[in-house]
Write a structure and sequence with these properties.
The protein has a domain of about 190 residues: SGNH hydrolase (Rossmann fold), CATH 3.40.50.1110. It contains 10 helices and 5 strands, in the order ααβααββαααβαβαα. The protein is globular, with a radius of gyration of 27 Å.
């Protein structure tokens, strides 16, 4: 046999096998890597929380649950739109941690019922309404500020350390308990809790837009700082993610000019629900959450 025929004979079997393999590869569709198809599916996202999560006062309102004053432009909806997530939004204005386990209004189910083992992402702001401390303190201090024409520190004089003590002793453990309940109901989910954006600057307020007496501005600023620290510690204790909205909202409090502020003042604001985030604030909270969780 010639060298040419020998080479042809030696190549024939492996070459035929290679040709068949290439032909087969050409007609068989490529298979996705394990888990790739699941990653491509929309993220199963549940939004929990109070009015700062619901975007109360930001129009348009979600007509499916008018009692909750939930906006279709709140930060959960902004997040879902930007990352293509499948959102179940059960946020509700006025909610506190008890409403994770109990009905808030007739027909408004406990928020934890929205969670399951298939939930992949959970976000919330919660704790500000607990024990009637934080939001009610703004209202009570505002009433005292009006009565004093913005002078002195009537709120601090009346309540002293009561508000801070309640946040540390009651609100903090309640928030931690709520986060643990979320993790039990959605054990595979990334759970994020956002701090509350700054409502007042550290020292000098803006009476009468925010009707807080001058001496009570640092008093209320400290109270909000204590609340946000409690939220952050609850996140750390439960392996949740804390979104540092307070730091990012520096210079965007309710005393800033329209177009810069993230929270609307009590007077001369643009939202029907005062002392709450506007659409700019809700969008900012969405961006911070996306960045913190690396959802982009």
């Amino acid at each position: 046999m010639s060298a040419r025929r020998t080479a042809l004979a030696l190549c024939l079997a492996p070459c035929l096998a290679l040709s068949m393999l290439l032909a087969t590869a050409a007609v068989v569709p490529s298979q996705a890597a394990p888990g790739e198809q699941e990653r491509r599916a929309p993220l199963r996202y549940v939004a929990l929380g109070d009015s700062y999560s619901a975007g109360s006062g930001v129009v348009p309102i979600d007509v499916t649950s008018p009692m909750c004053l939930r906006s279709t432009r709140n930060y959960p909806n902004v997040i879902a739109e930007r990352i293509g997530a499948r959102l179940n939004d059960v946020t509700c204005g006025g909610a506190d941690t008890t409403h994770y386990r109990t009905e808030q209004y007739p027909g408004v189910a406990p928020q934890l019922e929205a969670l399951s083992r298939n939930t992949q992402l959970v976000t919330m702001t919660i704790g500000g309404n607990d024990s009637g401390v934080f939001i009610s303190s703004i209202l009570q201090c505002g009433a005292l500020g009006i009565a004093s024409a913005g002078r002195g520190s009537p709120c601090q004089d009346r309540y002293g350390n009561d508000f801070v003590r309640t946040v540390r002793r009651t609100t903090a453990p309640d928030v931690e308990k709520a986060l643990r309940a979320v993790h039990r109901k959605a054990p595979r989910a990334t759970v994020a809790i956002l701090g509350y954006p700054r409502i007042l600057p550290p020292k000098r307020g803006c009476f009468p837009q925010m009707p807080v007496a001058r001496g009570d501005v640092p008093y209320l600023f400290k109270l909000q700082k204590v609340l946000n620290k409690a939220v952050r510690r609850a996140a750390d204790a439960t392996d949740s993610v804390y979104v540092n909205v307070p730091r990012a909202s520096r210079g965007h409090d309710a005393c800033q000019l329209r177009g810069r502020r993230w929270v609307e003042p009590a007077l001369l604001g643009t939202n029907p629900v005062v002392v709450h985030p506007n659409s700019r604030g809700e969008s900012a909270m969405a961006r911070l959450t996306i960045r913190t969780l690396d959802l982009g």
